[in-house]
């Protein structure tokens, strides 16, 4: 059987400039991907039959086209320089708006159901094996996170417990963030599209005088820039005024930027060199931004981090 090749590109102004090449020869599948103009990385896999190999090709093409890739010809596009970006770009969450119609586009949103780019990967609890509630999905903007393979992060958190998890797609990188090292025989995820989601608390006329209902919100994001995170040793020489300025600059619900914390134990090692802040969810009592789901989020400040190569995830939280 003569080898067949499919070539796709994702090229956006001031954004991603990536290619994805699929080569099929009988039962052997080769996938090459990376920045346009670079050699990229290569993955190879052999299937049991040519039919199964071809089915995998069709699946990969659907997934890539759904995430914005288009059919192209190798060599027609030239390598583009990445736009220079400050280290600490951020998108501040300045307003959450509850919606009644489900959001089905791959945009940043809170609650509702995930808009999967690939086959679903719903994280399961390490404590009891049940689905961890979906909290939000975050579009991974190149200005904040650089040019990485993943374009969407799905964040899962149980507001009443310690179950947290994050999924990156494309690529299906999954991290279950367990605060206490809980071990169990439960699988990491289930292949399911829908599950429990973010809630808000509403009053009722009868006992109990409140109930939790599911919620879905759009979020207005305002671009800005934080001061770089300052480690304990540097902050030791700060005046109270300088500390207050740093605090007011970095506080709040936001994507990217610098974590608002004065304790190195709550940031990954080598933060500046190896990690970006993915999401900060600030205790609502410490922030003026009104979030309809705030009362069901818990009295925590939480930080999710993504490595600069887009392949690792980390999580920290602090109760106030």
Lay out the secondary structure:
Layout: E1 4-11, E2 17-25, E3 28-35, E4 41-46, H1 50-66, E5 70-71, E6 89-98, E7 109-111, E8 122-123, E9 134-139, H2 142-145, E10 152-157, E11 163-169, E12 173-178, E13 189-190, E14 199-203, E15 210-214, E16 216-225, H3 232-235, H4 240-250, E17 254-256, H5 271-274, E18 275-281, E19 300-307, E20 313-319
Antiparallel strand pairs: 1-2, 1-5, 2-3, 3-4, 6-16, 6-17, 7-9, 7-16, 8-13, 9-10, 10-11, 11-12, 14-15, 17-18, 18-19, 19-20
Q: What kind of sheet is the major sheet?
A: 11 strands, antiparallel
Mean pLDDT: 84
**Which spans have pLDDT < 50 for at least 5 consecutive residues?**
82-86
Distance between the termini: 64 Å
Give the structural class: mainly beta
Fraction of residues in β-strands: 35-45%
Tally of alpha and pi helices: 5
Describe this structure as you would to a colleague.
The protein is mostly beta strands. Helix content is 12%, strand content 38%. The protein is globular. It starts with a strand and ends with a strand.
């Amino acid at each position: 059987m003569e080898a067949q090749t499919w070539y796709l590109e994702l090229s956006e102004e001031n954004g991603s400039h990536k290619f994805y090449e699929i080569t099929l020869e009988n039962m052997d599948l080769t996938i090459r991907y990376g920045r346009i103009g670079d050699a990229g990385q290569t993955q190879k896999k052999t299937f049991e039959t040519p039919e199964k190999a071809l089915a995998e090709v069709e699946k990969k093409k659907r997934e890539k086209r759904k995430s914005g890739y288009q059919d192209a010809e190798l060599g027609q596009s030239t390598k583009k320089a990445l736009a220079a970006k400050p280290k600490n770009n951020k998108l501040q969450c300045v307003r959450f708006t509850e919606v009644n119609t489900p959001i089905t586009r791959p945009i940043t949103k809170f609650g509702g159901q995930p808009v999967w780019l690939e086959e679903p990967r719903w994280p399961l609890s390490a404590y009891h094996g049940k689905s961890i509630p979906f909290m939000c999905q975050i579009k991974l903007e190149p200005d904040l996170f650089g040019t990485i393979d993943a374009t969407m992060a799905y964040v899962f958190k149980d507001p009443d417990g310690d179950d947290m998890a994050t999924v990156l797609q494309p690529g299906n990188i999954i991290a279950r963030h367990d605060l206490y090292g809980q071990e169990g025989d439960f699988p990491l995820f289930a292949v399911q599209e829908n599950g429990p989601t973010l809630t808000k608390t509403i009053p009722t006329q009868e006992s109990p005088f409140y109930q939790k209902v599911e919620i879905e919100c759009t979020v207005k994001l305002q671009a800005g820039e934080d001061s770089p995170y300052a480690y304990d040793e540097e902050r030791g020489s700060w005046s109270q005024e300088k500390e207050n300025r740093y605090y007011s600059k970095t506080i709040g619900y936001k994507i990217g930027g610098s974590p608002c914390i004065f304790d190195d134990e709550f940031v990954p090692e080598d933060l500046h060199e190896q990690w970006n802040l993915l999401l900060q969810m600030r205790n609502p009592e410490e922030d003026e931004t009104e979030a309809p789901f705030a009362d069901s989020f818990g009295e925590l400040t939480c930080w999710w981090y993504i490595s600069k190569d887009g392949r690792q995830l980390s999580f920290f939280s602090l109760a106030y």
